[in-house]
Amino acid sequence: MHKKKFMFENIPSTTVQTPIASAIFYPSKNYLHVTFTATQATSMDLVLTHLKHLNQLVGDAPPPLFLADIRKTLTVSKEVRDMLGNHPLAVRVASKVAILINSSVTRILGNLFVRFSKPPYPSKLFTSEDKALEWLFE
Fold first, then answer.
1. Which of 35, 34, 28 lies closest to 61, judged by CA?
2. In what helix (H) or strand (E) does residue 126 lie, and over which residues does it extend?
3. Could you give the C-alpha distances from 134 to 46, 67, 124, in angstroms and in order?
4. CB of 121 closer than 8 Å to CB of 97
């Protein structure tokens, strides 16, 4: 059995469900894990609500390390990509972002975000959650 290097089961956390994702914040690690549950993110209003939820979840902590699991996502509008990369509420909840992908569709979405939305924090694509976490915590 493969044992993951990073285990978070016994670390205190807080969770929230947003309109487009589920999020878990681990304050002691200053780490935010967001799994996008919506197959499409095209509504600016829903994304803004999502960002407000994440900001409430993180509270006064410094911008955390952020793992974005977009493996279920199929469509993201340019406006939403730009908002997720540069809106003050988005920048407030990310100091470094690992984007977890699993298909050519999610690779394209991730590359569009990293290359064209140009977020102000380091961002990188991964197919392995362990590799993503290694990069985040290095």
1. 28
2. strand 123-126
3. 31, 11, 12
4. yes
- What pLDDT score does 25 carry? 97
Tokens describing residue 93: 């909840």
* Cα-only R_g, the chain: 14
Retrieve residue 41's tokens. 């993110």
Q: Which two tokens stand for residue 129?
A: 């959650």
Stretch 8-15: mean pLDDT, rounded? Answer: 88
Cα–Cα distance for residue pair 16/3, rounded to 1 Å: 27
- Our CA angle for 27, 86, 76, nearest 5°, is 95
Q: The pTM is what?
A: 0.89
- Which domains, from first to last, does the chain contain? 14-132 (3.30.750.24)
Taking the C-alpha atoms of residue 89 and residue 86, their distance in angstroms, rounded to an integer, is 8
Helices (H), 6-87: 44-58, 78-86
